[in-house]
Amino acid sequence: MPLTSRSPLLLAGFLAAAGVAHFAAPASFDAMVPRALPGNPRSWTRVSGAVELALAAGIAAPRTRQLSAQATALFFVGVFPANLKMAYDWRTRPAPARALAYGRLPLQLPLYLWARAAARPTTG
Question: Does residue 33 carry a pLDDT above 50?
């Protein structure tokens, strides 16, 4: 199977791992939830984890891949404020932690582009 055929499945695996992490270690995700959002952060953590798992399942299935990948691209845009909040909150942490927080910001662009690429119809 060529890499281009596996790429959506790798994206699905990435999303599934992230979704599971939201349930396995929710506290770190709770801290990223922007305070402007209503409700409690744990609810947002659970919802975003469930969304990631649903998107992973949708991308893994060829029939729903295109729509799910488009939704994933929008999801990556939607969670960017959480990454901004993390970068701001971690601005005084030790350099390795700051590097992690700041590194998440430009990472959103390749994730978005990956999802867009996975949304393209396959030929053949």
Answer: yes
